[in-house]
Write a structure and sequence with these properties.
The chain is mainly α. It is built from five helices and two strands.
Length: about 140
C-alpha cells in the first residue's frame, strides 16, 4: 500500500507539511492584537459606509421640496463631487516572511550572530522551496 491512502490521496511528508506551513500559514504583521481584528474589521467596514449614508442623506435632505430640474441637478452634482469613503482589508503576511524578518531584525540589533542568522534564513528559504540568496 505504501504512501497511498484508500482514497488514492498521497500522504504529505513532514517536510512538505513544513513547506506548506511557511507559505500558507499567515501571521498578523500590522502590529495590532490579532484578536482585536474580529471587532476592528467589522468596525472599519461600518464607519465609512455610515459616513457615506450620512452625507448622502444630508445632501438629499437639502434638496427636499418641489421637484424641479435645476435643484435635482444641483443635488446630483453635489452627490458625485466627492468620492465615497472606503476601507480595504489587507491579508496577513506568510509565516516564512515573518520569521525571516524576525531573524534579520535580531541580527541588525546585535542579539544574534550574523553567521547563524544567515544560516537560519537559508534554512527557512530552502524549506519554503525558494533558492537561498547569497552567503
Amino acid at each position: 500500500m505504501g504512501r497511498n491512502t484508500p482514497l488514492g490521496k498521497r500522504r504529505k511528508t513532514p517536510q512538505e507539511k513544513k513547506r506548506l506551513s511557511y507559505t500558507k500559514d499567515r501571521r498578523n504583521d500590522y502590529g495590532e492584537n490579532d484578536k482585536s481584528s474580529r471587532k476592528n474589521i467589522r468596525r472599519n467596514k461600518r464607519i465609512p459606509h455610515r459616513a457615506n449614508r450620512h452625507r448622502d442623506h444630508q445632501i438629499l435632505e437639502a434638496a427636499r421640496g418641489p421637484a424641479d430640474e435645476q435643484s435635482s441637478g444641483v443635488a446630483e452634482e453635489r452627490l458625485y463631487v466627492r468620492r465615497p469613503k472606503r476601507w480595504k482589508k489587507f491579508r496577513d503576511a506568510p509565516l516564512g516572511e515573518i520569521l525571516q524578518g524576525r531573524i534579520e531584525r535580531r541580527v541588525r540589533r546585535g542579539i544574534d550572530d550574523p553567521g547563524a542568522g544567515r544560516k537560519r534564513i537559508r534554512r527557512i528559504r530552502r524549506r519554503q522551496g525558494k533558492a537561498a540568496d547569497g552567503g
